[in-house]
Amino acid sequence: MNSRFVPGAATEVQRLPQAPTAAVVTASYAPDFERCRLLCETMDRQLSGVARHYILVEHRDVALFRQLENARRIVVDERDLLPRWLHVLDDPLSLFRRRVWLSLKTQPLRGWHVQQLRRIAIAAHAAEDVLIFCDSDVAFLRPFDASAFWRDGKVRLFRRDGVLANDGHDEHRIWSRNAGAALGIDASKVSAQDYISTLIAWRRETVTAMCGRIEKLHGRDWVAVLGSARRFSECMIYGRYVDEVLEGAGHFHGSEEFCRVHWTGEALSDDDFRRFVAGMAPEQVAIGMQSFIGTDIGRIRRLIDLD
């Protein structure tokens, strides 16, 4: 699929249909396959109100993830989403343990960069009105209806106000600044809002308009624009586009996180895990165990009664 979009941002954001269609989007890779399998099983058990689940992976991982496909779950090859000039290979600088994406139009990119690009690019591939982003190391523990993401023709934009004005968010501030540069927002307009979380929603038509604006402003593919900065966050780009370019049109804000995530620290023991789950807020329906922390997937399965 061609990754280019028609230039120009939407001047008017239409209301969502009374019953919009929704899809869950998960970017993953082979080392997270078993975690993604757990996500799929818990989604199928607990999640309602979605028409499709797209799993976005590198070409060499497609065959592995095809095992997870069903009537509403589709594995999407990144080659159908991203430009062919972006080439992936084993990185000799990491003794071939890691992958690197190279081109003459971007800086060298790692997998976490490209996963973000896939999440943006799926908007040109999907047909649903609302895209719900969920990481592959998430598991749903409680029933959840996706209609929580829309009301009165608008989509819920996750936003935590003023967070970047506090200490300890240096990298987030860089991502926000680079988002502003990509979108053509005056550099003097510094945003203090944080838009980063998992289990959040975007309007598909807004994503395509956002990409069109980036291409029109910079005169090149949006992938090349973002990849040349390298330090970027897709959530920051979308959030600043909605709030500062569209002035919030088509969206309402929510700061509650539907997923409780164990972001950093040590792998959890059984007791630690039980305490973590017990600490879920009433609105939280899922947990996220960052895969690099190393909490055993078998333990998670056992403790949520899926073994």
From TrEMBL:
<protein>
    <submittedName>
        <fullName>DUF6492 family protein</fullName>
    </submittedName>
</protein>
<dbReference type="Pfam" id="PF20102">
    <property type="entry name" value="DUF6492"/>
</dbReference>
<dbReference type="InterPro" id="IPR045499">
    <property type="entry name" value="DUF6492"/>
</dbReference>
